[in-house]
Structure formats: structure tokens, C-alpha cells
Amino acid sequence: MEADISELAPGALQIVEWRGKPVWILRRTAVMLAAIRADDSLVADPRSEVSQQPDYARNELHSIRPDIAVLVGVCTHLGCSPQFKWADDKAEMGQAWTGGFYCPCHGSKFDLACRVLRGSPASTNLVVPPYECAGDGEIIIGSDTRKT
């Protein structure tokens, strides 16, 4: 599955379908990346050691490139689809909220790298599908020739 991200603006989220599931492609800004690093103490698996992802996404940012997140948009608790919530949604999400995803079914929260926050019903980070970056403008989902 090829996704054209050449027009994806910083801070924007693109949703595509792969194998019948939503896949989120988020172009993160410098502010979003700083928020991820600040969230390390709030997440259950900061380095994605327990979660399901290729080795090249087993890191703090849960991705190959810092500015691009590619994730299966299905909650790891019971399979609902979380919603994107901006950092300024603090009234609903709490004062420590720096932006990320919220699952309305049972209340799981995920940061901007889709790492699950401690105390959420979900026990693991969101799944990273196999993918490759083909230059700056294309993501190939389902292709995993990199392997490391």
C-alpha cells in the first residue's frame, strides 16, 4: 500500500486503509517531538520494548524518521479506534496532556508516538506496521525490506 505524504503538512494526520485497518500517518512538528520526550515518565513502555513493531521502530519515537509516525489506528485494549486529541484539549484530557490519541471506548491514552500512558486499560503501545520511507513524499506500508 503506497501513501503519498508529499502534501502532508507538519502537525497533520493522514488516514489510509491497510489490510482492512486504519493506518495513521502523522507528520510531527518540533513541538510534538519535544512533547514525546517529555512524556517518557508517563508512558508504560517508553522504548517500545514490549509492543509489536519492527526492530527499526523499537525506539522512543516508535518510528523510522522522527517527523513521521506510521501506526495502526486500533487500540491494543479491545480494538476500538482512538481519536486524535490536540495538546490544548487539557480540559477534557487533563493538565499533563501534551497531545496524542484517546480511545473513547475504555479511556486508553497514547502519546504522540502512540506509546500507552500508564494507568490506561490498554497494556501495550499501538502497533507499528511494516513500512518503508520512499524519499520524502511516499510511505510504503506492508513493505519491510529494511528489517533492522
Key descriptive features of the protein:
148 residues; mainly beta; 3-stranded antiparallel sheet; 9 strands; Rieske Iron-sulfur Protein; 2 helices
**Count of β-strands:** 9
The value of Rg in angstroms is 14 Å
- In terms of DSSP E residues, the strand content is 15-25%
What is the fourth-level CATH superfamily? Answer: Rieske [2Fe-2S] iron-sulphur domain
CATH architecture: 3-layer Sandwich
Shape: globular
Count of distinct structural domains: 1
**Helix/strand-derived class?**
mainly beta
Which ranges are low-confidence, i.e. pLDDT below 50, for 5 or more consecutive residues? none
The largest sheet is: 3 strands, antiparallel
Distance between the termini: 20 Å
Q: How many helical elements?
A: 2
Helix content: under 10%
CATH class group:
Mainly Beta
What CATH calls the topology is Rieske Iron-sulfur Protein
Which sequence of SSEs, written as H and E, runs from N to C?
Answer: EEEHEEHEEEE
Structure description:
By secondary structure, the protein is mainly beta. It has one domain: Rieske Iron-sulfur Protein. It is built from two helices and nine strands. The strands form three sheets. The protein has a three-stranded antiparallel sheet, with no helix packed on it. It has a three-stranded antiparallel sheet with strand order 2-3-4, with no helix packed on it.
